[in-house]
Amino acid sequence: MRLFFLVFGLLGCTSIVFAQSTPPKSVYSFDTKKSKKKRVKGMNRPEYDQRLLHLGFSFGLHYTTFRIRTNQEFANRIAARQANPDTGTRAPTTIFGADPIGVPGFTVGFILPNFRINRYFELRFHPSVSFYNRYVNFRYSGARGDSISTQLNQSIYSFVEPTILLKYHSKRRNNTRMFMVAGIKPGLEVGVKREELDPTVLRLKGADLSIEYGFGIELYYPLFKFSPELRFSHGLLNMIYPDNNRYTQILNRMNTHTVTLFLNFEG
Asked: Could you tell me which residues are beta bridge partners of residue 189?
């Protein structure tokens, strides 16, 4: 997690230096009252924000994990184990722990035309495809009382995510501008037939809905706008597929949690 903040900070500082060191251009604007030209130095593409159409693409690196909530059955097992620590006679399939494991992945997306509400607010549509690896570490008692760890995963999860965001940005200062975003992210898994997966292992649902929020900085260059952005995502839906096996018997909810560093490029 600290690596994301370190990379984001380095990208922001380096990009600001390059943006401010761009050779200044002379841009002329007319004053309707005085009919004189005003010269503005050092500002790249000052007309950019008045354009109605902005297209671009984004690339993101994310770190994803689960928020797991166990049920009363799991609590009873823990209480029984503490009362009787001798686990030698217990079956090796009795689970006594479930720990999510964070895994990195990547996201690619497109930046489509935004709907400008006023000077500081706009609606942003950001469709993307994300590739996830998700793991859960189950601990259970072995035949001789040993602790055995098992990692279960389906495969690479490919999700189409048409994200809708409300974006607030500050006043532009030369070639930089800060912004914040918040919105919702529906997700639909593609390329997997749920009925063909083994029902004796942990399976996840193929749809999710998340709330998203984040912040970033816009850097104006002569030919494009570059925007590094750090975004947080919290899943609202329970991702546990309703199988009745030894894994789902101790789980109540599993919600996704993702942190993504986006690199946005707009023309």
From this structure: 159
Residue keyed to tokens 């380096």: 14
Prediction pTM value = 0.77
State the architecture of 2-266 in CATH terms.
Beta Barrel (2.40)
The first and second tokens of residue 163, run together, are 């994200």
Distances (CA, A) of 160 to 131, 213, 217, 258: 9, 18, 26, 15
**Structural domain spans, the chain:** 2-266
Cα 224 to Cα 8, 44, 247, 261, 265: the distances in Å are 19, 9, 50, 19, 7
> Which is it for strands 115-116 and 95-101: parallel, antiparallel or unpaired?
unpaired
Give which of 244, 119, 227, 123 is closest to 182, Cα–Cα.
123
C-alpha–C-alpha distance, residues 94 and 79, integer Å: 14
CA dihedral 84, 90, 94, 95 (to 10 degrees): 40
The pLDDT tens digits of the residues spanning 41-92 come to: 678 888 888 777 778 999 999 999 999 998 888 888 777 777 776 554 455 5
Specify the DSSP element, H or E, that contains 127.
Answer: strand 121-133
